[in-house]
Amino acid sequence: MSGPAPKSGLRKGTERFLRAIGFSGRGLVIAVPTLWLLVFFLIPFLVVLKISVAEPMIARPPYSPLFVHGPDGWSLKYTFDNYAYLWQDSLYIKAYWSSVKIAFVSTVLTLMIGYPMAYYIARSEEPKRSLLLLLVVLPFWTSFLLRVYAWIGILKNKGLLNAVLMKIGIIDQPLVIMQTDIAVYIGIVYTYLPFMILPLYANLVKLDGSLLEASADLGARPLTTFLKITLPLSLPGILAGSMLVFIPAIGEFVIPALLGGPDTLMIGKVLWSEFFNNRDWPVASAVAIAMLVLLVIPVMLLRLANTKQEDLI
Amino acid sequence: MAAPTLAAEAKPWADPAAKPFIRIRNITKNFGDFTAVDDVTLDIYKGELFCLLGGSGCGKSTLLRMLAGFETPSAGQIEIDGQDMARIDPHHRPTNMMFQSYALFPHMTVEKNVAYGLLRQGMPRGEAMERVADMLRMVKLEDFATRKPHQLSGGQQQRVALARSRVKQPKLLLLDEPLGALDKKLREETQFELIRIQETLGVTFIVVTHDQEEAMTLSTRIGVMDAGQIVQVGEPQEIYERPGSRYVADFIGSVNLFSGEVDASGTDMLRIRSAEADGDILAPPMAGLKARQGVWVAVRPEQITLSREAPQNARNVLQGMVEEVAYLGNLSIYRVVLDSGKVVRVTKANLSHEESPITWDERVYLCWNPAAGVVLTK
Prior knowledge:
Helix content of chain A: over 70%
Strand content of chain A: under 5%
Strand order of the largest sheet of chain A: 1-2
CATH class of the largest domain in chain A: Mainly Alpha
CATH architecture of the largest domain in chain A: Orthogonal Bundle
Order of helices and strands of chain A: HHEEHHHHHHHHHHHH
Largest sheet of chain B: 6 strands, mixed
Distance between the termini of chain A: 33 Å
CATH topology of the largest domain in chain A: MetI-like fold
Radius of gyration of chain A: 26 Å
CATH superfamily of the largest domain in chain B: P-loop containing nucleotide triphosphate hydrolases
Strand content of chain B: 25-35%
Structural class of chain B: alpha+beta
Oligomer: heterodimer
Mean pLDDT of chain B: 87
Order of helices and strands of chain B: HEEEHEEEHHHEHEHEEHHEEEEEEEEEE
Number of domains of chain B: 2
């Protein structure tokens, strides 16, 4: 295209009008996602933030208002007691810590299972590669809840797994997996595997095969080539996949609720019981905000590391 | 440094008793139904700079990759320095390759790229880094040691790639289109650099290229490939002056081909009846030709002289009209249309003080010495 196309008078007029009220073509394009984030992310976040500094009340809604109309006009009424409470009761610290631990272990497991799968798919020839990618995303066609439920059938004491293992004589007594952290790990790894595989695949498929040949040509064994060339070059994919697994896994509620036991402590479960069992909305909101802050910091660090890594490559 | 005997001077390929450094025997490579390399047999001698020349898809790169070990031959045998390569992995071969894309490791500095091969063979870090520094000094990149490949120009990347493939001092260097991405001036510099390395260090080179000029400048011998086969092997001069087929004649430089058939009456000179040349062409005698056999006579553009008046006592005189003149500075290229419609290419050196050079739409005589023609049967 060479130069702008001639414009009709009407279009010109509209354009001038939009520019006059502060809109440019570029601004309009960005306006839609900006508005979306504003309405569906920022406003709910502010609402939660507001509730987190309120006091619980037996009322509807069950918390004190932020703006109070008193004798000397409107005043702001807020308290940080809910946050202080998170510090005082060790349950919350423990739940945060346990969530981070479960999410971290799950991420490592997902990476260890997902990396070879992504590598294999990326190295496959075309018709097979598409089929394998389809198989990776196929579980998304079934409801997430149903798939987690299906694991109960597999993992419970008289479930499929124990029946098979006992049939072939590997164990005499059924393994107790259901309602333990192991079941939660299995659930998280299973659910989030595609989120690890896809960014890793996208990275590995771009890997220039001649680099691996060059490494072999210079005398590196296959394992050395993997450690010195493939692995460092796929670091952005590893980071992206790990973030996509780690972040939602921390706040995961459904999996620990369905597969975990009473000892499984995760912040999502705590949040749920604060909201629906205790009906203490302000503390529940404080838990949510604290979790967000705890998540945002590592994410920022990872993003930073990621962009640096991409700069290098 | 005492220069080793140069392969270009010793010509070991002319000596039937000489032991080849690389023996390629009946090598074939199939990809599914496609035969990339078709029954190639070739000997390459120590210290040679051997060029595999051919168009894209002729199998030259596949042959090179089989030498490096990246492809397994479907049939045949490769021997390097007396050792059968069939069961030897790429990382154990005495070869190093310079890739067409350079294949520099993007996450490593120049220094680490060059050191990679030395560290893999277990050389202590200190010693390796010394060798790397020497090598970088030789390719004039010592100031760029800590840069990443993407911070270098194409020419610098090319020198890093060359340094990395040389630093392990392999017996055999394989270069895949080494000068492809460089501009003309850098290319010439690198060509002479390669020749210098080959002559002073006595390394054996195999270079894959599609550029006939590059092959002519560099090589001790050229192997011309077409459709997976080696169609002719010879020294550059031999390939240029005595091509074995129309494909080779046409691929190496430009050539005029006149089709015709053998006239049996010729004795000391071969007489060929050619409708394209509007008459008979005389060519050097050649054994094994039958009367009326269809042949081609190849004549290089620079062997033909142009004149306004009919040349005296000359043989192989044709007439035509100048259709096009391209002035290239040191020489001019003429396209002359014969009465038969055949277009003939003639190059002529431009001499100063020449009065009224031949120009467009002039009727001219074309003439060449019969000895300058080459008779081709395929």
